[in-house]
Structures are given as C-alpha cells and as structure tokens.
Amino acid sequence: MTKELEGVSSKTVGFQGQDDPSDPLNWSTTYKWSVVCLVSMFTTVVTFATLMCTPATPQILDEFESHNTVYPVILVSIWELGEGIGVLIIAPLSELFGRLPVWHTANVLFCLFSVTGALSTNIHMLIAFRFLNGVAVVALALEPAIISDLFPQEKRGMPMALTSIAPLLGPVVAPIIGSYLSQARGWRWVFWLVTVVAGTFEVLSIFVLRETYRVKILRKKTQRLRSEMGDVSLVSQYGDAHGSNTSVA
User: Fold this and answer.
1) Which residues are in coiled coils (predicted)?
2) What does residue 68 show for φ and ψ, rounded to 5 degrees?
3) Phi, psi of 13 (to 5 degrees)
4) Which of 10-19, 44-53, 203-212 has the highest mean pLDDT?
5) CATH number of 28-213
6) Residues 45-65: pLDDT tens digits?
7) Would you state the pLDDT for residue 236?
8) Could you tell me which residue, 233 or 175, shows the higher pLDDT?
9) Which of 40, 144, 149, 225 could staple 166 via S-S, CB 3.0–4.6 A?
10) Cα-Cα-Cα-Cα dihedral sign, residues 32, 199, 95, 2
11) End-to-end CA gap in the chain
C-alpha cells in the first residue's frame, strides 16, 4: 500500500515515477515483442481470410444456383466495407473500455461470424456475414494503438515494420490455400479453417495479452485505491473511472 501511494499526489493517482512496473512502457522487452508477434499473426489471419474465399466463388455460386457475376466481387469488397466501418467503431470503444475487452469481444464475434458464414444457406446470408466479419476485424484497428502503448515513440520503428509486413503475407498465400482447400474439401472449409486459426490465436491471446491502455490501467488503480483507502475523492491523472477529464500530471 505504501509503495502504491507514491503514485498518489494531491488526490491525483498516477504511475510511481518513470520505472513503475505497472506502466506498459516498462514491461519486459520479451513480453512486448511477444505481444507484437501475436498481434501481427492475428493481422495475417485477418488479411488471409479476406481473399481466401476468392478461388471458391465458382463453387459458392453453383451451390446457391446463382449466375450473377457481381457476387464474386461483392464477396470480397463487402468485407473491405465492413473493415472501414469497423475501425470507426472499434477504435473509439478501445478508448472508452480499454484495448483488452474490445480485442476479445471483437475476436469472438469474428469467429462466430466465420462459423455462420460456413453455415450459410444462401448467397445473401453469406454476403451479410462477410460484411460482419469485416466489421469485427480488431487487429488492424488496435495494432498501432497497442504498439504506441508498449513502446516510446523513438522505439516504435521495428514493431511497426513487423506489423506492416503481416498484412502483405495474407493476400499472397490466401488464394493458393483457398484454391486447394475448396477443391479438396469444398468451399465451406475455407471458412472453417479461418474459424479454427482465428479461434486458436484468440485462446492464445487470453493467456498472453494484458491491458496496455495506460488510461484504463490508472483508472482501475484509482478505483482500487478508493476502495482500500475509503477516499472517493481520488481521481486518475487521466480522468476518473467514468471518463470525466482532469489535468494530466
């Protein structure tokens, strides 16, 4: 308790100096890079899923007895539309509730939408869930934020370089794997594979990822100290637990 109070000044709760171990900037280099690698791999999976169904579109149209040549284009482009909308939703939510809950919620939804895509009974249902899959893409929205949480500005070059490579790998291998898989097992297995891989990384992230948003970390610390000290006037340097602003120490 005494050590934690070092971060409390004039009723304002902050970190305990520049070496505070609860500050994500001070976490171990090994852990930081494990987070970067995990986020990068999830980004690869997402970009992989974007184009993996492209070689399977003839099978999809045949099964749903559709000859509309627009549908193959829509199946890919509707995902991109979803991504554009999803970023506008996910990024602000991560500022309100923290990176971790938004990350897990969006990833679970991504897996569920992949499952429903695999179980689609008509082309319109498949297109709808492709769109929702794009909306639930969280890695692309939170990747830069998580890196900025973990690394000071002068050390973000290498992590950003690694995460920039990840989106380029998916589109390269996705059509190849999608083509072989759809021919061997059918087009629905394209979506099942995405579900399995994304689900595996989500389970891994449950054990690896911690909250990296400094504002959220300090607000949780403030709530804990309020309870322990019985002082409801304590406030985080970034604002109270409900988000009202105060001066930053």
Assistant:
1) none
2) -75, 115
3) -95, 125
4) 203-212
5) 1.20.1250.20
6) 888 888 888 888 889 999 998
7) 74
8) 175
9) 40
10) negative
11) 21
By percentage, how much of the chain surpasses pLDDT 90? 48
Residue 186, both tokens = 């059918």
Burial class (CB in 10 A: 0-12, 13-18, 19+), 144: middle
C-alpha 200/C-alpha 181 separation (Å) is 19
3-state secondary structure labels for all residues of the chain: CCCHHHHEECCEECCCCCCCCCCHHHCCHHHHHHHHHHHHHHHHHHHHHHHHCHHHHHHHHHHCCCCCCCHHHHHHHHHHHHHHHHHHHHHHHHHHHCHHHHHHHHHHHHHHHHHHHHCCCCHHHHHHHHHHHHHCCCHHHHHHHHHHHHCCHHHCHHHHHHHHHHHHHHHHHHHHHHHHHHHHHCCHHHHHHHHHHHHHHHHHHHHHCCCCCHHHHHHHHHHHHHHHHCCCCCEECCCCCCCCCCCCC
CA distance 34 to 23: 17
Answer yes or no: is pLDDT of 246 > 50: no
Where do the structural domains in the chain lie, given as residue ranges? 28-213
CA-to-CA distance for 134 and 6, rounded, in angstroms? 45
Average pLDDT, integer, range 143-154: 92
Mean pLDDT of the chain: 85
CB neighbour list of residue 149: distance below 8 Å, 6 or more residues apart: 24, 25, 99, 212, 213, 214
Place of tokens 């309870």: 227
